[in-house]
Design a protein that fits this description.
The protein has 402 residues and is an alpha+beta fold. It folds into three domains: 82 residues, no CATH class; 109 residues, Macroglobulin (MG2) domain (Immunoglobulin-like, Sandwich); 127 residues, Glutaredoxin (3-Layer(aba) Sandwich), CATH 3.40.30. Strands 2, 3, 5, 6, 7 and 11 form a six-stranded antiparallel beta sheet that branches. The chain has a five-stranded antiparallel beta sheet with strand order 13-12-15-17-18, with no helix packed on it. A five-stranded mixed beta sheet has the order 23-22-21-24-25. It starts with a helix and ends with a helix.
Length: 402
Amino acid sequence: MLRAYLRRPAGACRVRAACFLFTITAALGLPASAQATAPQPAMGTIRVPYPEFGLLLMPVTAPGAEAADEERVEGKDGVARVPAGRYHLMQWRVETVDRAGRRWQARGTAWPEPIEVPAGGTLELPLAAPLRAHLQGVESNAVMHFHLEYAGPKGERCRGVTVDGEAPTPPVVRIFDSQGRVVGRTRFAKKCGGTCHAAWPIPEGLAGRFRAVPEPQLGPMRLEVGGGITFDLQASRVVHPRPAVGRPAPDFMLTTPRGQTVQLGFLKDRPVLLCFFCNCGLCRAFASEIARAGDLAKKARILVVASDAAVAEDPGFQKETGLTDALYFHDAPPIVALLYASEECPRCWLIDEKGIVRYVNPERLMPAAKLVTDLRAALAPPAPKAKPVAGRPSPNQIKRTR
């Protein structure tokens, strides 16, 4: 029968195939247009500032809907074509080559918020551009333990950096005194991919204010180091001066429940409103009043450090108070709260672009409306200095004549 079928004219075979296809589509209830070709999805472009990259995307679906298949994307010459839509970025990889021909690769996870690829348009995705070197330090028994990790500008965590498949040269951290002199130097552990560790025995009797700055070597990868971290020593032990208005705010690094890494030292584009909240009525009142004053979220970046995991991880607190224009962190154990002497909440600190404390609420039980009034006053630009009127002596001249 097969030989007889193959000997039939090609036209007869095409007619039978068309009839067969029509029968199947009719049985499935598909429209006649589906007998030809299925509609192609609208496409968009993702652009990344590295020549080669890879993404693992998960389409955003409506609540209760069945999860869609993941989308694996490979980009060349910095671009990739992707079906338009909203996605969760689950994993990422960027690659480039240095002048010696060595291949550098950085990889990570968890873009902190969904991305949207426009139909017929381009999404600029600043993956790992730059990689920020986040440094932390903890003293124990006169030994300073440094922790270094990399994250992108949106806080996307970097899980590893390699050059030709191997870990790069471990970075160095230098310790400077208040006069800018190097008083110490140590190298991080050999296996240093996305997270590095180093220990520095503090010289006996060392005292004063010091600054530790990492010096990573990541070849052609885009890198931002920042100013490092500052700490105070007395008799080779770290001390934490109580922060106050007019003094530098203690630096810290925290991670949101979605994996977004944030360090205060890198937030220089606008003031920071740092709020220590729990789930009590006072904290809810403060949060609700800040949310109602929509201008505060436009003038300052709001960070909520919560002692209660439900505040940071459960969206109920955000929905009930309306404070959605903020980043939430769970501070457990309460390391940052201790740095700011804010174990008793609510406590709100306003920190300017230079890292100087400009305001802190003096009382926990103050009216929430008074807090907003004080914050607005602290955020207001300084009044211009009055120019002396021609022919009239200035107050300083009057004092000198007296």
